Amino acid sequence: MRTTGILRSWLRAHALFGDSVMAVVVAAFSVATAVVVGSSAPGPPWEPGVPGGALLVLGCAPLVLRRRWPFVLLCASVLPDVVMVALGYADGLTGLVTLILLYTVAAYRGLALSLVAAAVGLLGYAVVAALASDPGGWTRHTFVFVVASAIWVVGRSVRLRRAYLAELVDRAERLERARDADTRAARAEERSRIARELHDVVAHHVSVMTVQAAAARKVLDTRPEAAKDALVAIEEMGRTAMREMRGIVGVLRTDGETGELSPQPGMVDLPGLVDQMREAGLRAQLWIEGERRTLPPGIDLAAYRLVQEALTNSLRHAGPAARAWVTVRHATGELVVQVEDDGRGRTGEFSRGPDDRPGHGLVGIRERVALYGGNLRIGPRQGGGFEVRARFPLKD
């Protein structure tokens, strides 16, 4: 079975060789058939001679280039048949050549040209039958018409099937390209999401650890116990950061292993976050207004990250004596989150790096809020300080 498939593929790739072999075989059988028919006819045995043999070979020669010019060769193949019948030579299997060329036109050319080819083939048969000494009866003519029609239908079916398969292949390729594009877009979106999560985790915990380390350095000589407490807080904060980063990066596993993923933080973790900021030196308070309700996971995480980023920036930029307020309001159809501080702050950007360039905190928060159709306000607060206020719409 495999050998047959390899041979078929090779012949398809070398069509000229296969058609040449077919033309030689048909010509040989045509000459043999003419000799047999001529010998069985009344009178002396028929000798093909040079003219008759040449006409038979000439009538089979169009098969060599049948795939390149099938219609032209079909028209040309009628001429040797007419000449042989007019001169009284036996036509051998030249009629088979006409049928093969008719099939080729129907299988490789359009509908209009294939219909013209069928008309040319039938017209050539009618001329040969009219010139023949024994034209045959209506039974023979009907049989030839039915065979020619069947061959034409088979050729058209092959062409339609080939076009259908080509369309399927093209559609599969388009779907494959679309799937690859969707996969790349999904990967880019996932990388962007993970980058935002990592930024929020690293920025928050590293900022708190930096403040704690600075406090420990200042009181190391005068108050060793306070410095020890700060170092313990740094250790705990580092472990928490590693645990959260391990949970975020765990989604990148591709080896099928199940990572030790902890749940993503949410609004229920705000008291712990506020306690962490108090331990780091920021006087933070939390107010929750309205009846608490179950939030969608995406909004729950986005609101938590917003508060985390806002408190981290207050810790870094508001000053040592600053206070911060976190207000969470559960209203009908919306969630309002507001973070304020009364420090000196910065009025240019929400978050800046050490070299005074804009950080990624503002961009990340805007993307999170916009993703869920919310409104965000970031800017100076009346009476001094800084304010971050976001509203998330909630659907019942």
UniProtKB/TrEMBL annotation:
CDD domains assigned: HATPase_UhpB-NarQ-NarX-like
Keyword line: ATP-binding, Kinase, Membrane, Nucleotide-binding, Phosphoprotein, Transferase, Transmembrane, Transmembrane helix, Two-component regulatory system
Residues annotated as transmembrane: 21-41, 71-104, 111-132, 138-155
Residue ranges of domain Histidine kinase/HSP90-like ATPase in the record: 298-396
Protein EC: 2.7.13.3
Name under which the protein is recorded: histidine kinase
Organism per entry: Sphaerisporangium corydalis
InterPro entries: DUF7134 (IPR055558), HATPase_C_sf (IPR036890), HATPase_dom (IPR003594), Sensor_HK_TwoCompSys (IPR050482), Sig_transdc_His_kin_sub3_dim/P (IPR011712)
Reaction(s) the record says it catalyses: ATP + protein L-histidine = ADP + protein N-phospho-L-histidine
GO molecular-function term, one example from the UniProt record: kinase activity
Class in the EC hierarchy, top level: transferase
